[in-house]
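Subject: Protein entry, chain in single-letter code together with its fold tokens

Category: Structural biology, sequence-to-fold work with a learned token vocabulary.

Notation: Tokens come from a learned vocabulary of local backbone shapes, not from coordinates.

Start of record: The labelled sequence and token lines come straight after this line.
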Amino acid sequence: MPRIFIAFVCAFSLIATAAIAKEFSSVEEQMSSREFKSAGLDKLSPEELAALNAWIRTNQPSGVSYTARPTSEDPARIGLKGSEVRELITTNVIGVVKGFSGGTIFKMENGQTWQVDSGELAGIKAMTNPKVTIRPAIIGDGWRLQIEGYNTVAKVRRVE
């Protein structure tokens, strides 16, 4: 178990240092549940996971912001211009939400439409117009969506 933790910390620190980073909340918020499990992080105790998150927060690059590369044909960049900074988005879904899985489409009150690429949230009570947070991934150009009140995070892309 400790070897998995040490290996992940070393690998993640190399990737995070080279990646563009803004602010770090937690590993579980930045990764889809599938990515979290495939990295073996579900095997960590709550104390080990807290230590990993604290280490990443302490050692992440500072003073760097997410920027979008100018690629007009990429649907994830709809509405982004050149080097525009990728900011946290907080809005509400239009309609009833009973969970999500790959392929789920969310129309937002801010006019955007997002599609779930990976992640699953099932067996929840139906919610009308729930608040969501969409944040840039800590590594790469992806985005992560989280419904208020739930820890599960979906990897999403903007389609409108």
Observations:
- The CA atoms of residues 68 and 96 lie 31 Å apart.
